[in-house]
Amino acid sequence: MIDQLERARQLLHEINQAHDLRFTLRERCRGGVVGAWLLTDPAGMRAILKCNDRMAHRMARLPSLVDRIRSAGYPTPAWLASGVTVDGAAYHIVDFAPGEPMARSALTGRTAAQLVEVIESQVGLDPDPVQDWSRYVRACAFEEGKSDPRPVLRRLGHSGVELVEHFDAVLAPYAALDLPGGDLVHGDFNTCNVLIHHGAVSAVIDVDACGSGTRAVDYAWLLREAYVRGGEPQAIATIRRAGEAVAGPGVLAICAAATAFDITRFQLGHDPDSLPWVLAGLHRLADDLQHG
């Protein structure tokens, strides 16, 4: 943590100089894989610094993308500064949004309805066709390249092979189905990235992976979370019904297979001890998609 703290201080010093800002580092934000830090300025304004070197290639166009989706009413905080340092560190500072992540409370039918309302606000926004989530999802679900998750899962052994085969049975009727596009896709739409304040959604955060595609992608990510996390049956039904309404059950099934494979690969690298219960939830998801 000392190394991370010192790196964040050095980065903030460079950002303040580059953008003529006066922020002070306060503390690291709880949760998340990529570092995020609470900042304040002399007037007491709060902001969040996020560092994500994997997004360096997108930093030139992300600020205008965020401005466009905000102007369309999408509830994500304004970006105050962003860029890439001379040594390749990508960063952005966003306005502080009040609230707690929805992940800290139960996923109920009511909260699912609130999340559906957010995803439906993404219809037709199509912010960045270069970041094509529909294409990425289809590759995750069906392709066998070195960068795709299916080969990684098979190397897990029986548990990985079993998951691939289970979802292959789900996907069998949909192998030739194309995914639509034209919507905003958050790309990591889960309850950790949605803040709630006084019972209402106050912000959708961590939009740096957002792009274009079908919003069914975000429904599938949320549905997968509901099965793995143990969301209430009404929540699962609400999310699935809305997801299938986008472009039919086949599109949602392809997106669900993609997120199942993708999250398994992610957990393998970050939290392998969680795999048994994650896989159990994913098999329940596959069962329900296959049998109604």
UniProtKB/TrEMBL annotation:
Keywords, sorted A to Z: Kinase, Transferase
One Pfam family matching this protein: APH
Domain Aminoglycoside phosphotransferase: 37-250
GO molecular function, one term: kinase activity
Keyword Metal-binding attached: no
Keyword Transport: no
SUPFAM superfamilies on file: Protein kinase-like (PK-like)
Entries under InterPro entries matching the protein: Aminoglycoside_PTrfase, Kinase-like_dom_sf
Name assigned to this protein: Aminoglycoside phosphotransferase (APT) family kinase protein
